[in-house]
């Protein structure tokens, strides 16, 4: 947290017991003046005028691009280009589409009026603009969507899953950057740049890219690059770092100088905590309070801040001495308060008295209902007793499901603040205790309890009862037009302000409703207890409320605001973005809507905007379209299919007798497991699991079935429901290993079944490996942490159904490539039949090979391989074995697909597959492949979901000469279909 702030911060905020730091600030009121102003403000009218006129401001969620010499910030917010002065949006581009990202060309590469000084992209299209708000002209398309950007020697670098591209400020289509194994890179100027590869090696150029020098030894395990001032800063794993200075020399004995490039300049007069999850304006919109001189009071990371709503900065910061998890400010009739909750304690701070702790409530065994209720500007109440433990639910708990309502405010006891240090306790009668749905505090310690009886009409009880300072209002839970829900998924809140009471005794506000958007309804209950519901804007799909304020969003993406508890709504000017405008949080300060914040509310003095824009259609959910394959396998049916079926069986494929319904689980895309489930067992799982799978790359596609005792899973009662597989090249075969999938590790099941190589448990997903001598070398994990391990192989092959002893696995080393290396898929195998290697290939087919040290687990320098786009069937004469071939196994997602129209009814699922390849710098040859498919001819359901316990895959081998042989296998519950194929090779 930053050291705060003003000399008079304690007096200005009066919100806690300690200030953090001090700095003189001119033109600030004295402590006495501030305290007097705060006390006068705290005694303001309960209905202070709304902030206005409303305006849209940019928050920290916007993608900041640059700041001009005039102090104007340029950002991409909500997909639209905007300019802001301070927090206020002052100009926006006339875009008709939303952009996904933007970047400015490095200053050394672009003239002021360069056609593509600014680069923008949307899906795979790239655009260039000469000025930030100017026309964006199309430059070309990329083979995949943009994942990241970086400054390069001659333009803007774009990282995609299918390669790295550079956009020149002069315009023209994106140019592919031809650097093998490029994971991430950064240029400090027109001559200095550093590249980090997929295998963690570092390459430095100081001559504008003419030559590159290997500096991996000086920069071991480099993970991140940034430019600070004139230095190229390299972050190493751990806390170490290095610098490439202006002369191109590697320096390790001084800190980087200057600010970080592409980040907003530091706001020296902003005291907002650096580690806060929200920006000051976002926090003010979420749970802020109106404060002095038009500012707001907001909460952040155990501190109270005063936020200037014109600039979006925190001008004062006050740290709380006690550890509080969550806090919220509020205003009552005689002052301003702060309520907080931490472990086993709820606390009330009196802001108007310098931040003293006014009251503490113990919560050791308190139910999880809402903690505090406020009637804004009037009174505060605690949901529970004033002293002692909270009572349990008054519901009849004999039944397993509670018959009471699920409102978090169901305590029959309520403690109301009468004044500073004075609190009054209220209890409802036993007959009403089980049906309290809300409490509303009132001035002078009075309270109103709202009771929702489980009836349609109130007959045998008075609607309103007054007992001293407690007023009880009774309604029917399903009394028209009410429909108060019995159960709710809403979590408890620290502070709720949903209801209030007018001077004539009318209740108005928000109640839970089974038929309302966001499970809310705007209601009024008059002084006699008769309810009425207010209409919401047509086609409302969501409501975001805070007391009398709220925002409604409709199906056509229009926004409507209310400032009177939903009695009326006014159209809101849409945010500057063109995307979805989903309100996220609201307070009396405003609302956060997407990446924008709307400050202020329209109290009726400002005319509502004209509704001239055509309504936006509510976009329907669409399943993401997988990347198209680089190459396609051309196969044809070679004969009719053969199938078998047994009814009422829930096993994989045809079985001799029906198998009872069991809990199915998935084993990669090659098998299934069926486990009896009878709830948690004290002594561990009992019974047997049925494991069935198709051996890898077996054209006959038999089903191997085994029964494994569930005791092999150990004492933990929870069953696994997915086993993911890694692939190990073992001579002419491919073997599997169990990786960490969803649920607990079940390696013992598939190890005993003979499907996987026993390695003593599960290994991190994804995993590839190769058998080298008497050991299997495995590379597992992704991102910037990968492990290289060795497993001693068992002396004999496992027998299905018998327990096997795992090999002795030990870790050889850890690899720490940069994060961007995750865009590559890894393969493993042998070079020249003897030397272990690892291959990395991206979605564009670019591939590099690195030797793997079998003793130390380290990777050598990369060597470029032929592109996967040139894949050829191994049976082709051009694929005769060569001395420099590396034979590897490659798991993939979409790189290899199926030729369209050749297998009618069959499509690649775009989700899983692996291939055995022979790879060299000159060519890449396909020996065998398995691809997960969908067979529309035999599918019971044609949705995108593959149920567990089923297998649908295509197997093809090119071991001989001429066309390859293949098999299509579709296995379901009690059914199996196999059909022979002829695979002619690869088509583009």
Automatic annotation (TrEMBL):
Q: What does UniProt give as the signal peptide span?
A: 1-22
What species is given as this protein's source? Answer: Polyangium sorediatum
Give the highest taxon in the source lineage.
Answer: Bacteria
Region called Disordered, residue ranges: 21-54, 602-625
Name of this protein:
Lipoprotein
Keyword terms, alphabetized: Signal
Keyword Signal attached? yes
